[in-house]
Amino acid sequence: MATTAVAPAPAAYPTTGPVRSARGAVPADLWDKQVGLLMRDYPYDSIMAARVLDQGYAYLLTAMNHRGEKLGLAPSKLVDIGVHTIILDTVAYAELCEKFNGGEFLHHVPKVDFKNDGSVIKTAHIIAADGWEVDLSLWADAAECGPCHPGNDSH
């Protein structure tokens, strides 16, 4: 089992306050359902599914927190699996947007080509700076590229 670590934030992204777990932002029954969906659809045990889901939520909540800043946030390939599990449960995702994004729906606009600009690891640092726990091993699979389209209302 890989250990969980917080990404060291560069000076431009200072971390303040205690580290938060995304699991605390999600109702327990929804969390259990989405962990089950990941286990159903991928060769994950409950521990790996929870890690992927946690990072998917940390990514989305950070994107919502920085909506309109055009930071070019991008998940790794593994974290994107968690993101897709979250956003495909559209009723729960709409409720998440209502609660954490001022009622604005945060669209997902993937691109076919990966960009090679370091945006994935930069995103992990921003997530850490926002106070979320970062599981670095889940971000390492695509440390220099990401498929998502930056914008005011998308990730």
Molecular structure report:
The protein is mainly alpha-helical. The protein has one domain (24-148). 44% of the residues lie in helices and 7% in strands. It has a two-stranded antiparallel ribbon with strand order 1-2. α1 (28-41) crosses α2. The longest helix is centred in the middle third of the chain and has 20 residues, at 46-65. The chain is globular and about 35 Å long. The N and C termini lie far apart (30 Å).
Number of beta-strand segments: 2
The rounded Rg comes to 14 Å
Helical fraction equals 40-55%
Question: What is the molecular shape?
Answer: globular
How many angstroms does the end-to-end distance come to?
30 Å
Look at the helices and sheets and give the structural class. Answer: mainly alpha
Strand content: 5-15%
Mean pLDDT, nearest integer?
83
Question: Can you tell me the residue ranges where pLDDT is under 50 for at least 5 consecutive residues?
Answer: 1-16
Order of helices and strands: HHHHEHE
How many DSSP H or I helices? 5
Biggest sheet, in brief?
2 strands, antiparallel
The largest sheet has its strands arranged as 1-2
Give the oligomeric state: single chain
| Count of discrete domains | 1
